[in-house]
Amino acid sequence: MTGTAPVTPATTAFARATAVRSLGDGRYRAEVGADWSAPTGPNGGYLAAILVRALEGELAPEGERRLRSLTVHYLRTAALGSLEIDVRVLRTGRRTASAAVSARQDGRDVLAGLAAFAAPGLDAAATWTPAAPDVPAPPAPDAPAVRGADYRPGGGAWLEAPPGTPSISRQLRMAPVLGTGPFVARPLDGDHGVETGGWIASPEAQPVDAAYVAQLTDFWWPPAFEVLERPAIAPTIDLTIHLRADLPPGGLPPTPVLGTYRSTAAVDGLVEEDATLVLPDGSLLAQARQLALLAPLS
Q: Does residue 4 carry a pLDDT above 50?
């Protein structure tokens, strides 16, 4: 895996935005683009997706392993432009393999992470998954997008991104089915915190691969925003993603994904968020947890 050829075919906007090029010896280069930015800089899920591309290029170039776990620490805000990535294989075994990954810009560390891969088709002593939420079916791929005042859960339409929202909110389609929206002073449920979420889909024929899944775990607005009266920021400190579906090389066929996002505690300026991604047939796709700052917008 040498030279400057892209590791994965860049056939969609998301694939192009997360593409990496191998420089040999575990080194990769990517370009951080502006289209996937949140208010405080490039989105954490987007940056994790770029790391996924490099990790797969090093540990699963022929699809012989599946990414199963990735933890990313966000050391400083990434800038737009070139991102230098290093993948260091820590161990390879018959069933699992592990690697460390880091990324730098202008000589400064930006991201640091650990990843675990597993062989497909592992023997299972038992299998169980949580029940999928009882929510309306996703809109059709070509359904129209409507403004917030006209949007109704289960109404067969996608939600139009309001003017002034971060660029990332315009890259994928959203159909909320849980929660009430950001900055509406929603009352907290004392036992369960606050939960939000809905259907997410790409406007293009984007396969559901590991990088795309990483993006979806951090795509929705933070559930903590729903209990606030005014805008705030919630940059991610660390994000751990567990991929629970056996995603084949090239990913699953394009399909909407149901994401639910829950926070139970905001303490000392920090808030946690748990994400669960489910396919339309109810199959568990991924689980994730992150810790983020929760700070006034100033």
A: no
